[in-house]
Each structure stands twice: as C-alpha cells, then as structure tokens.
Amino acid sequence: MTKEMTGAEMVVEALADQGVQHIFGYPGGAVLPIYDELFKNTNRLQHILVRHEQGAVHAAEGYARSTGKVGCVLVTSGPGATNAVTGLTDALMDSIPLVVITGQVPTHLIGNDAFQECDTVGITRPCTKHNYLVKNVNDLSRVLHEAFYVASHGRPGPVVVDIPKDVQFARGNYTGPQNIKHKTYNPKVKGDLDKIKAAVEMMARAKRPLFYTGGGVINSGTEASQLLRELVKLTGFPITSTLMGLGAFPAADPQWLGMHGTFEANMAMHDCDVMICIGARFDDRITGRVDAFSPGSRKIHVDIDASSINKNVKVDIGIVGDCAHVLEDMTRIWRASGLKSDARALKDWWGQIDKWRARKSLSYRNSFDIIKPQYAIQRLYELTKDRDTYITTEVGQHQMWAAQFYNFQEPNRWMTSGGLGTMGYGLPAAIGVQMAHPNSLVIDIAGEASILMNMQELSTAVQYRLPVKIFILNNQYMGMVRQWQELLHGGRYSESYTEALPDFVKLAEAYHAVGIRCEKPGDLDAAIMEMIKVDKPVIFDCVVDRNENCFPMIPSGRAHNEMILGDSAESIDDAVTEEGKLLV
Amino acid sequence: MNTAATTTHYPAATVVEKSGSHTLSVLVDNEPGVLARVIGLFSGRGYNIDSLTVSETEHQKHLSLITIVTSGTPMVIEQIKNQLERLVPVHRVVDLTVTGRAIERELAMVKVRGKGDHRVEALRLADAFRARVIDATTESFVFEITGKSDKIEQFVELMLPLGLVEVSRTGVVAIGRGPDAM
Question: Which residues of A touch B90 (CB under 8 A)?
C-alpha cells in the first residue's frame, strides 16, 4: 500500500499512522513545509507551541513518561536542533522514548555553513539512541516508522530524524508502518530461563534478601509494576527503589523501605546477602564507593540493556530481558517449584530492618514560625493524595524532598530528571503531562532557581489553558549547591544565592496566570487548597526555611552505609572531619 | 582514600583486574555515519583504540567489517562488546581474542633511503622478512610487508638505522579459522 505525496505530507501521515495525537514544537525556516501540513491537518494532530525548544523536548518527555507512549517533537534546523540537545540527553539518560524531527537546510547546502545550518546528526549522535539524516524522500516513511520502533523497543530512548527542506518538498512514495521489521535491531525481551531458575533458587535460599528496583520497571509498562508487587508479596522480601523507580511499588506498603537514601534502605542494601536488582543500573548515586558497595551480597540483575549488566558492579546472575517478562517468569517458577522464603531468617532480617527504621532518618524539626520544606511537601501530599495527581520536579533539594515525602502509590505519576539532573525540566514536563491528562492535577514541585531556567513555558501553559501548578519551595538559594558548600566547602556560598529574585506572584500575573504566596506554616493548608481549586496555571511561592538541608546524605567518597543523618548535628561534623575539613 | 574522592562527590575509580589486548570484529550496515558512531562510542566512553580498520565487505548486502584492536580489563572488554552491540546498525560483535582461533594480519609499506652498505643491508633484511620491493630509485626502496603486527614492528625497528623515511600501515585485519562465518 503506497501513496505518492510530498515529504512534508509523509511526516504528518506517518505521525498519524503511529497514533500520535500531540506534537510539541517551534517553527522555523527549515520546517515550514511541515508546519504548512500541520495547518491543514489540525483535526488529526495537535501541535503545542512551546517558547523554547528545550521546553518542547521536556514536555514530550513528561507526555511519554506519564502515558507510556512515544513523545514527539518538531523543531527547526540550527538553533532549533541545538536547543533540543539538553532534552535529548535527558531522555537518553532516563530512557524516555521520543521521536524528534528536525528541519535541515536543503541537501545541496549541507556542509556549506548555510544560514541556520548545523551538523544535527553529528551533534546529536552521542545524545540519542539513534539518529537519521534523510536525503531521499523515498526513504522518509520507512525511516520515520523505524524511528518509532527504535525509540520504543528495547531500552527506550530518543531518536532524531533530520529532514532537509528540499526533501520535505520532494514527492515520493509513502508506505505505512505495517511490517516494519528492523534488520539489525531486535532486542531480546525474554530472559534466559536457566538463569531465571538459578535466580529464583538463590532468592529462596536467601537469609537477608532485598529488592532494588528502578525506572526499567516503569518503562516496562504498568503490568511490570503489578508483577513486581506480586513477586514482592509472594516472597515477603523488603524493597527499595531508585529515584526513577518510584511508584512501581506502593509507598504505603509495609514492605517498602523508602527510596534508596533512607537509613533503612541503605543499611539493608549494604548488609543484604541477596540483592535482586530489577531495571536499575547501579549508578554512582546509588553505590557510593564501589569497592564498599554491598560487599557481602550475591547480586541478581535484570535489565533489557546488556551493557548495564556488569558495568559498575559485578553481579552473580545477569539476566538480559524486559522486566515484565522476567518478573512473570520468576513468579511462575517460584510458584511452580513450590519454593518458600526462609521464614525464620526473614523474621530476623525484618527485626534488624525495624531497628534501622526506628532511626527515623527522614525526621526533621518542624517549626510554627517558618515553613520547613519537608513539611510543605507532606502537606501537599496529604491534600492531593486522594486526587488524580501527577508530580514533576526540577532538580535539587526540592526534588529530593519530593521523592522522600511525597508517597507514590502508582507508576507513571512521577516525572523527574534523574540521570542528567536537568534544572528547568519540571515545568515543561508538567505541560506535557497535563496535555496527556487534561483533567488531572499536575504539580511541578520546583525550586526558585530551577524554575527560572524554563520560566518562559508558563506562557505555553496559559495559551493552551493547561492548569499546571508550580509549587516553588523558595529558599533563595540553589539549595543543593548551598548544602554542599556548607558541608564541604567551609560555608563559602560561592554564587549560590540569588539576590534579585522576581516577585513570583506578580510574575504569574504578568503571564495571566495566578500567583499565591505562603510564608507561615499555619496558612499552608488553606493556600494549597486554594491552589488546587484554581482552574488556571498557578505559581505557588512557598517561602521556606533557607537553611534546611537534605538528609540522609552520603558524603564525598564514602560508602553507601556511611550516611550523615539530619537529626544529630554533631554527626555532620564527624562525617566531614576526616576528609572534609582538610578542604576547609 | 585518595584526594580525588574527597574533593568531588563522585566515587573514586576502582583499581581492578589486569588489562589485556583484544581484537574485535564488528559487522555493521554500511550506512553513513556508522564509523562515526563506533569511534564516538570509544572516545565518549574513554576506551582505547590501538588499531582500527574498516572496509565494505559485501557490496550487495551493504555490509562493512570493522576490526578494532583495543585493550582493557575483562569487565571493560565485556562493556565495549555490549555497548557496540547496542548500536542500531551493528549486526554482530565477535571477540576474536576470546574465541582464540583467529588469524591476524597487517600490511605495511616502508620507505627507506640510503646508499652503499645501508642499501644492501636493507635489501638483505627485507628478503629475510619476505618483504617485497614495490618501488625503487637509486637512493631508496619502498618495501611491502605483510604479517602479524609484531613482525612489522620488528622490521620497522631494523630499518630505523638504515635510513627509514616513512611507514604506512593498514592496521590489523582478522578472521576466524575453520569453515564457519563469524
């Protein structure tokens, strides 16, 4: 089934055939033919005009992560493409499926330093899963369908399709997405059964087992989260997860130890004898000093990306496969072979864990005079938990507090920049989420520094009547930078204080949004309820304690069980005495 | 604990197993940018390239073979192999050093300039190494020599005092023994 049409028509046709309903973008000279087609096809495809191309990519990321679909972006050549690079890198690090279409100067001008020309495929090669420059219109439909296939299969990631302007005008044959069989890229989804059997047997023999799960479970679909819950219940093992994995297992469940980072989770990771890592990648935020990482455990690692296995940490059983498939096999084999966990050993293990829990590592001293950021997130959680809520964040202290104090019960409800740590991610991501879930409550938990990095996107939210809520924990500092400077650089707060912050309430009004400021703990609940009630974008300027720090914290070059805890001031001094004070 | 670990919030590099040289055969689709992807992966992730050869092998099938000699610990070599296999246009990666049954060859052209005894000695050694003369003037030779890399290195070293001017090497190509394809 082939039809003759122009390259620009093929783009719209291919997107429609792939089931795309929304595309985030910004026009420019090299994509005008495609924008012309969008103009004629508004009934098939809605374009969301952002204010900066970085915002388009983050919006598509939020869209993709909250729906499980592929996010789509359309930007022009040159600066359009280079502005998209941060978003592409972010999506690559966090394994978010995107198809990003970039315009390019006409083929005869490529390499001539033409106006708004850049080597898009060269620049984006290291920050995409794959990319294409389409020089022949007859390759275009195949490449576009292939791009969706590559973005969404195996470990998901961003794919760039660079289309020169003359190819957009040229006429050629369009073929549909049916029978796209990639000749080289066919990732393995089923895990090796012998290895899964060995893993399950190792689990049954474990005395101090622990599940450590990650974003791979979320990416594998809601079914994977269900299967994970089933297996965790079946075994009775404790579970912790990475930042990216929050929501796969409900935070309200007694088997949940909190995100990796709580005292009990880190101690359990360190002292366990069998670690079952599912869809996480042992990155350096998790391991701390690699040579001191969980030294006594045997490790099972399930990942769809073979290169994640044995990359940072040597594991005993590496299973390459999709989380949902492997979890299903594990559960089936566990049941079929009548295996039982070692109940006596587990009882002792839980006893030990309860002692660690009693340490209450997330506790903080609340105040009647000033809003503690942890308290703000706790209240936000309590007042929104019974609603259909999605949370995005920027990057920094507020992000960690959101992860620690907002208790996620379901997958795909938590959008954050984990791998790249991109300040400015949250607002555009929230816009993408709200676009996909128009009737849900979407909140960007932000810091006052991060939000200014993509503030312009508030204009997008207003234009499309997307009632996103920007909940700023305003401490006037780049809080995470300030915290490190306080603890490791002798309190020399080099450039981490923002002297001339805007008045966020007036800023909201200038954008035709609503501004709310709250400075007293006693006013917080009413202010949050007001924010929820407003059916418009809101900037909520929550003025919080400037000196609050995020704990527990693994200090420089320490092992993952050597945390600094917040409630004992002297332990901060102890922890930085040996190495840290050398620097002071 | 070293100072690097205390001044950054990244964990220090761990000192691990012994590093060794491996020859990898990488079968790829012959499409634009495929070599850049492979090389970019090595430079981006800090792997070594000791030798690299690439050429189209089967024109009708659009296939190219890239032969890479690299070095690293077993864990790093496994990483390199997995990272290469993850690239979309890569069909197959074979570690010829692990399979243990591979033939490796390299070709070099060696230009030597000299007169009198030096010239005679160069020719004599070339004969001993089964190098062929492929160009000659009254004061120079260009030798063509094929063999394992260490043989070529030895030959080049011997030519050094005899008036070595220039060397051009292909880099290593390799193939497994026996009747089967990679």
Answer: 184
Phi, psi of A209 (to 5 degrees): -85, 165
ipTM of the complex: 0.87
Chain A interface includes B90 (CB < 8 A) = yes
DSSP code at position A126: G
Distance, CA of A187 to chain centre: 22
Residue B163 has pLDDT above 60, yes or no: yes
- Could you count the other beta carbons within 10 Å of the beta carbon of residue A553? 19
Decide if A156 contacts A95 (C-beta within 8 A): yes
Active site residue A115: yes
pLDDT at A183: 82
Provide the token pair at A101: 């279409």
* Paired sense of beta strands B102-113 and B164-169, if any: antiparallel
Token code pair at residue B85: 């296999």
List the one residue out of A147, A198, A208 whose CA is nearest residue A177.
A147
- Residue A556's nearest CA partner among A477, A478, A485, A450 is A485
The first and second tokens of residue A554, run together, are 């693994």
A360 is catalytic: no
- For residue A197, indicate whether it is catalytic: no
Backbone angles phi, psi at A7, to 5 degrees: -60, -40
Residues of chain A with pLDDT under 70: 1, 179, 567-584
Query: Where are any strands of DSSP class E within A20-118?
Result: 22-25, 46-49, 71-75, 98-104
Quick: pLDDT tens for A17-70: 999 999 999 999 999 999 999 999 999 999 999 999 999 999 999 999 999 999
Crossing angle for the helix pair A7-17 and A32-40, nearest 10 degrees? 50
Taking CB atoms and an 8 Å cutoff, what residues of chain B touch A304?
none
The answer to whether A474 touches A373, Cβ cutoff 8 Å, is no
Pairing status of strand A171-175 against strand A2-6? antiparallel
User: What is residue B11's predicted lDDT score, i.e. its pLDDT?
Assistant: 66
Angle between helices A85-93 and A53-67 (to 10 degrees): 30
Instruction: Give me the pLDDT at residue A564, please.
Output: 86
- Tell me if residue A290 falls in helix, strand or coil: helix
Q: Which of B87, B99, B96 is nearest to B41 (CA)?
A: B87
Question: Which of A161, A112, A117, A116 is CA-nearest to residue A8?
Answer: A161
Q: Hey, is the C-beta of B75 within 8 angstroms of any chain A C-beta? A: yes
Residue A206 is predicted with a pLDDT of: 97
DSSP string computed for B84-95: HHHSTTEEEEEE
Q: How confident is the model at residue A260, as a pLDDT?
A: 95
**CB of A306 within 8 A of CB of A320?**
yes
Distant-in-sequence, close-in-space partners of A230: CB < 8 Å, separation ≥ 6: A327, A331
The pair of three-digit structure tokens given for residue A21, joined into one six-digit string: 């309903």
What is residue B41's DSSP assignment? Answer: H
pLDDT tens for each residue of B75-97 = 999 999 999 999 999 999 999 99
Q: Is A97 on the interface with B (CB under 8 A)?
A: no
pLDDT band at B9 (very low <50, low <70, confident <90, very high): low
β-strands B20-29, B63-72 pairing: antiparallel
Q: Determine, for residues A307 and B89 on separate chains, whether the beta-carbon distance falls below 8 Å.
A: no
DSSP A478: -
At residue B14, the pLDDT reads 60
Q: How many contiguous H segments (helices) and E segments (strands) does chain B have?
A: 6, 9
Report the chain A residue with the minimal C-alpha distance to residue B41. Answer: A126
| Subunit contact A556:B5, Cβ cutoff 8 A | yes
Chain B residues with CB-CB distance to A289 below 8 A: 5, 11-12
Kindly tell me if the per-residue pLDDT of B130 is higher than 80: yes
Is B85 in the A-facing interface, judged by CB distances under 8 Å?
Answer: yes
Indicate if A249 belongs to the active site. no
Tokens of residue B96, six digits: 């010829």
Tell me: the pLDDT tens digits for A186-225?
Answer: 999 999 999 999 999 999 999 999 999 999 999 999 999 9
